[in-house]
Design a protein that fits this description.
The protein is built from 2 helices and 24 strands. The chain is globular, with a radius of gyration of 19 Å. The protein is mostly beta strands and 358 residues long. A hairpin with a 4-residue loop joins strand 7 (111-115) and strand 8. Helix content is 5%, strand content 35%. A 4-stranded antiparallel beta sheet has the order 1-24-23-22, with no helix packed on it.
């Protein structure tokens, strides 16, 4: 009886790895979106978010890049209207800016920026004024100020401090969840007042462990979805960190496509990157769906039911409009409107999805 129970738990925790055949979703990409001021260009674009007014926030490694060739400052937060007109820059020259990673908007239209380089998460109010800061950057006066090393065994995590954080999300009670990704491999939880509650996770491949928790999102039922990128899976937890289930996306890529930069993965390496969750967003409203962006190759975006069933695929690898490379950030204000931030292609695409025809 005990053996049967253990076997059942293993099956429940194992993501589905059979190849998935999914329909292609027709879509359009709005040309020349957004409109940048004369002389300004994006750098790599790791983050995009949308507020209740439809305004689009872009976190980019762009014009603020300064310093030495190694480890320069590269973070700039920009706001645009829904039509793509430039509104303002937020936090120009901010102390936390080092290496942009993601941006999110909460239910009150506060703007949250996650900076991988400074190990900080910054909450701005809608006017663009700093409200809260989480974590602390290394001091420039310290001799040890240098990038984190990926040690084995890893450094022990510290409550309230982060090492290369990646993303942020909130539950229905206003608690904050931060994916503390590249070094600590955990999820940190704060309450609605910004007080530390707990963390869960550690490096590894077992259920509840992570190998680069790169994206995080929460549905209407307060299920916490963590994009465990290098483990090629999305894990689902309750708000206390209890593991519920996990799933993987395994749809084979278009064999005619090639990587935008570097060698196109083949064999085992291709298997590792197919469906690796680079970015996640969940639509609002009563009938929620998830969109998941792959890494630079195969580079696609997937529409996924919250139970893990893949409903469709959007785009393919490439440089042209309607192609993707490094969909590092996604915002989905509705099931038919998606904003995709691309690191390799240095842009944001505004995507309008059309119905799938049989």
């Amino acid at each position: 009886m005990k053996a049967l129970l253990i076997a059942g738990l293993v099956l429940m925790a194992t993501p589905c790895l059979a190849q998935q055949s999914v329909p292609r979703i027709p879509f359009d990409s709005v040309a020349d979106f957004p409109k940048l001021p004369d002389g300004m260009n994006f750098g790599e674009v790791p983050g995009v978010a949308v507020n209740s007014k439809g305004h689009v926030f872009v976190f980019t490694r762009s014009n603020s890049a300064s310093g030495p060739a190694y480890a320069p400052t590269a973070a700039q937060l920009l706001e645009f209207t829904e039509e793509g007109d430039f509104v303002r820059e937020i936090g120009k020259g901010l102390y936390a800016w080092a290496f942009a990673h993601s941006v999110r908007i909460d239910k009150d239209d506060n703007i949250w920026a996650i900076d991988k380089g400074s190990d900080m998460i910054v909450k701005f109010n809608p006017a663009g004024r700093v409200q809260w800061v989480f974590g602390r950057r290394k001091e420039s006066a310290e001799a040890e100020t240098r990038p984190w090393e990926h040690l084995n065994p890893p450094l022990p995590p510290v409550d309230g401090l982060f090492r290369e954080p990646t993303d942020v999300a909130w539950d229905s009670k206003g608690n904050t969840y931060i994916s503390d990704g590249y070094i600590n491999s955990r999820v940190a939880k704060y309450d609605m007042h910004g007080k530390w509650v707990k963390s869960w996770g550690e490096p590894g491949t077992e259920p509840g462990q992570f190998h680069l928790p790169h994206a995080i999102a929460i549905d209407n039922n307060d299920n916490v979805y963590v994009g465990d990128r290098t483990n090629h899976r999305i894990q689902v937890f309750d708000t206390d960190g209890k593991f519920l289930r996990m799933f993987a996306i395994t749809a084979p890529p278009d064999t005619t496509t090639r990587a935008v930069y570097g060698a196109t993965p083949t064999g085992d390496r291709l298997t590792q990157v197919i469906g690796a969750p680079n970015s996640i967003c969940i639509t609002p409203g009563p009938n929620q769906v998830m969109f998941v962006g792959e890494t630079t190759f195969p580079g696609r975006i997937f529409k996924v039911a919250l139970d893990g069933k893949v409903l469709g695929v959007i785009g393919k690898s490439g440089r042209e409009l309607k192609e993707f490379s490094g969909a590092h950030g996604l915002a989905c204000p509705s099931e038919n409107l998606i904003y995709a931030a691309e690191t390799a292609n240095w842009r944001v695409q505004k995507l309008i999805l059309r119905p799938v025809t049989e």
